[in-house]
Design goal:
420 residues; 69% helix; mainly alpha
Length: 420
């Protein structure tokens, strides 16, 4: 039997779905509101489970089970962690966000409209983030006397989030607009979607200094080209040429883009000889320390929240005693490295399996929902190579909430059977 219609829902379940959508609407600009709505969603989801046992159906899908397994490993990994107790507890708390993935899948599986409403809610929040960046650029963005939100300046016009997070959030929104334009049948809808893409892309390319946003746009555009053109050689070659011309033009048109790209090229060229105190040198040391830790404990890792303890001797060796960085407790800036260091090969394979199960459902016949899932997946995986995406709240909830909703929608589209 397959699920093709929205099922009857208890009041607590409807409230949980609304809270999930509100969390998605806030994820681009407010960690506090996102956490608030997510925690309330947990409570009402439990109430919905108690009222109607069929709500648990979506909890039996592969990504849900693997998310539970990964979280379970982080909890158990606290027992053999070499980290201090407060950092172990912090690690468990950070990775507890994995719970929202099976909840999102379960709620979206029950209601066919939830997966379709998820992207509009996210895009509304992203639009507010983009507008705020413009306000910062024009020096019109209000500040908070209690430091409730962050505001940059004209040279780096970010708002609420740092420019790395802004690049990820607005980069994904840009790509969704371009994807929408490629599916639009009417010219006015296509033009509206393209205008939205420009609205979201401009802050990344001209107003802020986050290189992650440039990478998101580049990888996303190539992915979008492959999805919409496929194996058509002439169109594919033309699309690649167009992307190359676009980025070369941006290099000369945007001061921020040029300076940050030049720095990136310099970093890559001098990677092996990087100053240990530079951002480039520190990233190199993260991988050196992480690689050594994995080699010493390859199967089960060093335990949850252990990386900061492993890296502490290196930080003290690099920085003088009077430096604020001398005793800094840091994460590895790579989710794949972080999982492997903490949980070893076992946790790393579970993490890969969870990601693979989410991405696989979007393969096959092309659709807007399926392509949206693939874009989300590609951006998350690629940026996880050099960012701690599950560790950081905005990036983690962005991916887990959207992935859960889109997974359920794509699974329904493929006519997958229910899980007992």
């Amino acid at each position: 039997m397959t699920v093709s219609i929205t099922q009857p829902r208890a009041k607590s379940e409807r409230i949980a779905q609304t809270l999930l959508l509100l969390a998605l609407g806030c994820v681009a600009f407010s960690t506090f509101l996102t956490n608030l709505f997510v925690y309330c969603c947990y409570l009402f989801f439990v109430a919905a489970l108690l009222q109607d046992r069929t709500v648990r159906t979506g909890l039996g899908f592969a990504p849900s089970l693997l998310a539970f397994a990964l979280l379970g490993l982080f909890i158990v990994g606290a027992s053999w962690s070499i980290g201090p107790s407060h950092e172990v507890a912090q690690g468990v708390r950070k990775y507890s966000k994995l719970l929202i993935l099976p909840i999102a899948i379960a709620l979206a599986w029950r209601d066919a409209t939830l997966s379709k409403r998820a992207l509009p809610y996210y895009m509304a929040g992203a639009a507010w983030l983009a507008l705020s960046c413009y306000l910062v650029w024009f020096n019109l963005m209000p500040t908070s006397r209690f430091d409730w939100w962050r505001v940059g300046d004209a040279k780096d016009a970010f708002a609420y989030k740092n420019h790395i997070t802004v690049g990820i959030m607005l980069g994904f929104a840009t790509l969704i607009c371009l994807l929408k334009a490629s599916y639009a049948e009417q010219l006015r809808n296509r033009l509206a979607a393209l205008a939205g893409a420009v609205l979201f892309a401009f802050p990344i390319l001209f107003l802020t200094q986050g290189r992650t946003g440039y990478v998101v746009l580049l990888i996303g555009l190539v992915t979008l080209l492959l999805l919409r053109v496929g194996a058509h050689r002439v169109r594919l070659a033309g699309g690649v040429l167009g992307i190359a011309v676009l980025f070369v033009s941006l290099y000369f048109a945007s001061t921020n883009f040029k300076s940050r790209t030049d720095q990136l090229v310099a970093d890559v060229q001098g990677y092996a000889n990087a100053d240990a105190r530079s951002p480039n040198g520190m990233r190199l040391s993260f991988f050196q320390v992480g690689g050594k830790a994995i080699a010493e404990h390859p199967w089960f890792g060093n335990g949850t929240g252990s990386f900061a303890e492993l890296y502490a001797p290196t930080a003290r060796a690099i920085w003088p005693a009077d430096s604020p960085h001398h005793n800094v407790r840091i994460h590895p800036h790579s989710e794949f490295l972080g999982v492997a260091v903490q949980l070893g090969l076992l946790g790393f394979l579970v993490y890969l399996a969870m990601l693979a199960s989410l991405g696989r459902v979007a393969l096959g016949a092309r659709s807007f929902e399926g392509d949206s899932m693939l874009l989300l997946w590609v951006i998350y995986v690629s940026t996880s190579l050099y960012n701690s995406m599950l560790w950081d709240p905005a990036e983690a909830y962005w991916f887990l909430l959207l992935a859960g909703c889109l997974y359920a929608g794509n699974r329904r589209r493929r006519g997958a059977p229910q899980v007992a």
